[in-house]
Specification:
Strand content: under 5%
Order of helices and strands: HHHHHHHH
CATH class: Mainly Alpha
Number of helices: 8
Radius of gyration: 20 Å
Helix content: over 70%
Length: about 200
């Protein structure tokens, strides 16, 4: 069988995407370099041309996860055809899947520092997007902000939402989203009950 030659950046990206899928489906422990290479139809030397270790591709896969999630949220926030409640609803609909994917990536062998950094980076990248939502809601007089600094307000709300969504004492995602809606309603004096 002849080998398929791909440009280096394409091959590296392919390995990252396969690794992300396998880490999300199987967790860190059950994903191996060999399983990634098997799906990529590649050889061990090829892997080590791009990555030094399983840990290094894991970190690259987490970054890929982060970028894809931020791209989805950016698309929702920038959709001019959607109103505030519709945008918030779409973000909520995606949040349960994202939390589930994150929990699969965050296993016992996963580096807790990396997972914490990934979560914090994701929230910080989302803050300007959430601030745009708040500014839009303020402009359209559908909410009130308890403070003028909407940048800090968006970070405060996002980190609070994250704490609720990633909480392990409440297992029902439906209940968690209900709590998040109450939090947003109280802080922003806005009705989100219909979403």
């Amino acid at each position: 069988m002849s080998r398929i030659v791909k440009p280096p950046d394409v091959r590296r990206q392919e390995l990252i995407e396969i690794a992300l899928k396998q880490f999300a489906e199987n967790g860190y422990e059950k994903t191996s370099i060999r399983s990634i290479l098997k799906e990529a139809d590649g050889e061990i030397g090829m892997f080590y041309h791009y990555f030094k270790s399983k840990h290094e591709i894991y970190v690259a896969a987490l970054e890929e996860y982060n970028e894809k999630y931020i791209a989805k949220v950016t698309e929702i926030v920038n959709a001019s055809s959607l109103n505030f409640k519709e945008k918030l609803n779409l973000i909520f609909l995606g949040s349960s899947g994202s939390v589930h994917e994150y929990s699969l990536l965050c296993t016992k062998k996963a580096n807790p520092e990396i997972m914490t950094i990934l979560l914090a980076k994701t929230l910080l990248k989302m803050a300007p997007l959430f601030e745009l939502l708040i500014l839009d809601g303020l402009k359209n007089n559908i909410m009130k902000a308890p403070m003028q600094n909407t940048r800090l307000l968006s970070k405060f709300i996002l980190f609070g939402i994250s704490a609720i969504l990633h909480d392990t004492e409440v297992s029902s995602m439906e209940e968690k989203i209900g709590l998040v809606k109450k939090l947003i309603e109280k802080i922003l004096d806005v009705d989100v009950g219909g979403i």
